[in-house]
Design goal:
Blueprint (H helix, E strand, L loop, with lengths): L40 H9 L4 H11 L1 H6 L13 H9 L3 H30 L13 H31 L33
Helix pairs in contact: 5-6
């Protein structure tokens, strides 16, 4: 009797309830379970562990949120992108740290309202239904709060870079000097001169 072929589905894997439109991959749903040709990394990982891909999750969410979106329409267009032509032209013409810092400061001041608005929204999303209370590290609420903080840390890091550049020009760290012996006028930290040959102690 020929040996029985092992099942493709591990016996330890619990069954999952999938939506009727569940597909491991959107490219070719009929490929062999262990054939990775044509898949991206997310699809390979999903097939290996019997999980839904990010595309699957987003598709199901869009489907289930359709009535909500119909009742709460949102703008279809992204926020208008700022015109950086003047800033980039000034940056290319800058010759000194003071000049480049003045341009960067202007950019940071102009972008702060948008970054702060984004941070405020991420905080509100993290606090949805008070999920942020005692949120564990890596939880959705914790990740959203981290993203809100990093949205503003962009401004802080860029400002720190400019401050460090200016300090190097206007307030550089003093060059360390070797202390001298005021009586002899020689360097106190120098080791003593070795004795002349033949004057060492006798054994």
């Amino acid at each position: 009797m020929p040996p029985r072929r092992p099942s493709r589905t591990p016996t330890t894997c619990k069954s999952r309830t999938r939506p009727k439109d569940f597909r491991i991959t959107s490219l070719d749903p009929d490929f062999d379970l262990y054939d990775n040709v044509g898949r991206d990394a997310d699809q390979i990982h999903a097939a290996r562990y019997n999980l839904a891909t990010r595309a699957d999750l987003k598709r199901w969410a869009r489907r289930d949120a359709q009535p909500f979106r119909a009742a709460h329409p949102l703008p279809d267009q992204p926020w208008p992108a700022p015109d950086l032509t003047a800033y980039l032209d000034a940056l290319a013409a800058a010759q000194t740290p003071a000049e480049i810092d003045s341009v960067t400061d202007h950019v940071l001041d102009a972008s702060e309202p948008a970054l702060r608005a984004l941070s405020d929204y991420l905080v509100a999303a993290a606090r949805w239904k008070q999920e942020s209370h005692d949120a564990a590290k890596g939880s959705p609420s914790n990740l959203l709060m981290t993203a809100a903080s990093r949205a503003l840390s962009v401004l802080a890091l860029a400002d720190e870079a400019g401050t460090n550049r200016l300090r190097a020009v206007y307030d550089p760290a003093p060059t360390p000097t070797t202390p001298t012996n005021p009586q002899q006028g020689t360097t106190a930290s120098l080791p003593p001169s070795p004795p002349p040959p033949g004057t060492g102690p006798r054994r």
